[in-house]
Specification:
The protein is an alpha+beta fold. The protein has a domain at 3-69: N-terminal domain of TfIIb (Single Sheet). Helices cover 17% and strands 21% of the residues.
Length: 104
């Protein structure tokens, strides 16, 4: 699953500086998770007033420009070949070919 990381804040539980990543939950509201130490989860959504106060304090959390973290290294496409090999077509088999094998 691809996670869109909007930024980081200080974790309110363990106090790790910039330890809590801010993403969006399934409803599109900001959601925090401490990557640094404690694994604390911070649900910000569910109440529009609370969500609006958080976004007023951290306006970047509402933006759509972000860093995407998939946990995988990017895959580079192979270089295209100048002259790709052309596969040879097999001759069409005839029903008499089978008979010819036995009549030798």
């Amino acid at each position: 699953m691809e996670k869109v990381i909007f930024g980081h804040i200080d974790c309110p539980t363990c106090g790790a500086a910039k330890g809590m990543r801010i993403t969006h939950d399934k409803n599109g509201d900001p959601f925090g998770y401490c990557e640094a130490e404690c694994g604390q989860q911070l649900r910000i959504g569910g109440d529009k007033r609370r969500s609006n106060k958080f976004l007023a304090r951290f306006p970047w959390a509402a933006g759509t420009t972000s860093v995407t973290d998939t946990g995988k290294k990017p895959v580079t496409a192979p270089e295209p070949q100048a002259n790709p090999p052309v596969p040879k077509a097999k001759p069409k088999a005839s029903p008499f070919d089978l008979l010819a094998q036995f009549n030798k």
